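Follow-up to my post from last week.
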Amino acid sequence: MLQNKLDSFKEAMRRVADINYSSAVLQWDQEVYMPEYGSAARARQLATLAGIAHRESTSAELGTLMNELLASDDIKDKDRRNLLEAKRNYDEKLKYPEEFVVKMSRTVSEAFNAWQDARKKNDFNSYAPFLEKLVELKWQECELLGYGAHPYDALIDQYEHGTTKADLDKLFDDVKTRLVPFVRTILEQDKPDDAFLYKHYNKDVQWNYGLKLLKQMGYDFKSGRQDISTHPFTTNFSARDVRVTTRISENDLGEMIWSCIHEGGHALYEQGLPDEDYGLPSGEYLSLGIHESQSRLWENNVGRSYDFWEHNYPALQDLYPENLSKVGVEEFYKAINKVQASLIRTSADELTYHMHVLIRYEIETLLMEKQITVKDLPHYWNSKYKEYLGIDVPDDTKGVLQDVHWSHGSFGYFPTYSIGSFYAAQFFNKAMEDIPGLKSDIRSGNLMNLKKWLNQNIHVYGRQYTADELCLKVTGESLNLNHFLNYARFKYEGLYEQLGV
Amino acid sequence: MLQNKLDSFKEAMRRVADINYSSAVLQWDQEVYMPEYGSAARARQLATLAGIAHRESTSAELGTLMNELLASDDIKDKDRRNLLEAKRNYDEKLKYPEEFVVKMSRTVSEAFNAWQDARKKNDFNSYAPFLEKLVELKWQECELLGYGAHPYDALIDQYEHGTTKADLDKLFDDVKTRLVPFVRTILEQDKPDDAFLYKHYNKDVQWNYGLKLLKQMGYDFKSGRQDISTHPFTTNFSARDVRVTTRISENDLGEMIWSCIHEGGHALYEQGLPDEDYGLPSGEYLSLGIHESQSRLWENNVGRSYDFWEHNYPALQDLYPENLSKVGVEEFYKAINKVQASLIRTSADELTYHMHVLIRYEIETLLMEKQITVKDLPHYWNSKYKEYLGIDVPDDTKGVLQDVHWSHGSFGYFPTYSIGSFYAAQFFNKAMEDIPGLKSDIRSGNLMNLKKWLNQNIHVYGRQYTADELCLKVTGESLNLNHFLNYARFKYEGLYEQLGV
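User reply:
Got it. Predicted complex:
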């Protein structure tokens, strides 16, 4: 009887997953292959599926079933963790009145269109009224969800459950007082020459090289595939169908290389989730921060390391002798780790990146605390870029209009990018401790021990724990910026011997 | 009030279409891009969507709404036709008990797997028990649906509404007494040399040539795209997203050319349906026979005509000078119209094709009339191939196991292939009458007048009429084999001057 109920619960969860993964297929297709005029019908189809998924995932039967199961002492361990987490998600979804969901969805659509338009025309003012409506709705959302000390807690919790504004304040305080001064010292050094990265690189050759990198990481092409899209992303329709996309620029070699490795890291996480737990929390990723830790670990800790390129650079040289035959691996390594104050977050190096995130975090918390208004955003944006990165923002398109997130109503999302990088450093340190000879593994192109370690220590648990619980379980301590700082110091002191930092 | 109800009806229909088109995206992906291990989750996802679509399309609310609307005299013309057709589909779906649907779905899955296996191993006996179960269920289905003179009426009606076994008996009797003797005479003639079609043809060059053919037909690439799949097909997710697939053989030029043109014909139909009627009968294809008439018209009446190749052949010669420079357009035309008795339906020429269909029609009606059993199928298959085509079937893989249809539970489907070709000839005749200079249009590569004629006379009506009503409306008479016979005689008498038929 209890087993029957448990089976019914799992099947109900899997049905919702079926619908959501179906939407994911439609979204993947939309980004990758859909013809231009297909978009109107596609929007309808996605909206209908979203409505059905919402209805099924908030059904009274499902709520009753979960309550009955949770009342039994015989539901233990993973089953109990799955039920608790599913019930938490269920209760959260129930907090949204349908009217609010519809209004939010419509407002997001309008704001997104207005953002695209404003970005093209460099016209923040045309976008501001739409963003104002959206901010108003986000305030309402905070009230609907409820929160502890600060409304922003309700927002960050959706992406990084268990993390509060207090946690983030502490973390970004650390970033400001410890990372920012370090990065400033580096920004003062002479820059390595990286002009050769921007010569002409044939696209087909790049494509094939990217596939080889994914294979080397252990990405399983029988459970996935790579395609081209404007913005690289990873999506999945089960742990056995995890797809990545990349973009290739003929005049910027790095774009393909690090989008492949970054998305490959995300994909290994999804491929490493337990397929038998399809549709259950234990079969799904933990949080955005943990997801990003997997992509960043591969992109930066591995993919921008000297060891990695000692193995991989000769083959790359052979593919592009006209560009690279006279560039040694040391020179290549320096170039791909050039640190430079810049305007655009997505193309920032691994150090200044966190200043881009810090700026967004400071601005969006001010906005959610009602200390500034939407109209103030460009001013705060520009002055913070001056303050933290010492650069002038020439126009809003390269400034406050550059990110899609706010137009999607995603406030509280940006911090997960930094959290991910910091987790990555902490996990990678632990992997170095746990795996004898990992450094020389990487130097010889063997990445399988690292992949296995991530599978066994992180991926396999899905969302059975909070990020903090997982971090404690894996590394013996909570998130600690020291790991990232030590990684950065060690790496960049080597790169800038004269640094004296 | 009435308008509100009408809007609700349309929206309910469109929601069902959203779900079904979502399934179509998942199926397209499955055939074209899905990685190998993705299939288990995909099967789940498709089953869940099918269940939801069934639930929504048979809801009591929808039934009540349609009855209320149909009771009003103010519902007229297209609205009334849409309601009548939607109600007919609704009533038909209600005839299926859920238990039966589940059992059928499971039996089809098993039979399909058994068929794939049996075909590989040339082992009909291993498949027979599964097919027997399926035939048993199809008999039950006939009883559930109800029928007039013959159970088979219920089956054919699902593909070609309004057509009965009596109609088909009459049609295929005509085929037997008029077309078969004509084809036999042709089979006795000397065959043209077509060896050059099987030389080596570079795949990429073929691909690009195929795209040009589609463009020439007026296929809109902003509302569609072409990809590669094992079995070419057309699918659509709205009239603005209609996709075709093709296959390319490096040693058989014809495979790509006629799959492109054939699927292109299907696609022009779907792109020509009124997009504003998305989800309503008037926005959907009429019947399989009418769909096939569009593909066959382009494939055969246009794509295998001398006029078409007089324009297109020189460009093809330029692409493959090593194979074609010494082959004149006359020789090419004869080769692509070679008539030959063969074992496999899908690669048959446009004349013997109908003998393949006739054989299947005769066998499946015997089976549904319980005059033969599944075990008798190979015997009847082989003896009818001897009787109609004069050839021996060497094994069941090239015989009774060649088609997927029966393993899918599709009985009554095959006749629509012949019906489609016969409609094609009749429509094309009318187009020749209606469009001044169509022949010289085609000879100069201008296919737009023909496309427009099909758009305006056939596509635009969707499923507002039955096939017979449409045929009468367009050509002034019901389906009449004379048009196909005259087309065949005129064409093949020219090809075989000595024929004297």
